[in-house]
Amino acid sequence: MVTQAARDVIAQAERLPPDERAMVVAAIGSPRQEVSDRIWQWVVAAFLAIMLAVVATLIAAFLLRNSLAGIEALTAIFTAALGFIAGLFAPSPATK
Fold first, then answer.
1. How would you class 74 by CB atoms within 10 Å of its CB: exposed for 0-12, middle for 13-18, buried for 19 or more?
2. What is the pLDDT of residues 6-19, one digit of tens each?
3. What are the phi and psi torsion angles at 47 (to 5°)?
4. Going by fewer Cβ within 10 Å, which terminus of the chain is more open, N or C?
5. Can you tell me whether residue 85 is helix, strand or coil?
6. Model pTM?
């Protein structure tokens, strides 16, 4: 929940010229490494949960021999999540 004091600070910051805004952002800095790590853990866990849910749904549909009409959508979701996870292990093109 955003407090009124935080809204006031945001409103004041929006009125600053771009160079002063950049100084404020630099002064605030980035989150601590522990916070960044925790965010990434949640993101990766969410994508893994999506992959597991899709695989479980596909297996259940196959075993129950239900209509596989939505299999294309499930396959697309699975491959997108798999691509995201695989992208985490790929080397960055920016670092050589």
1. middle
2. 888 888 888 999 89
3. -70, -35
4. N
5. helix
6. 0.60
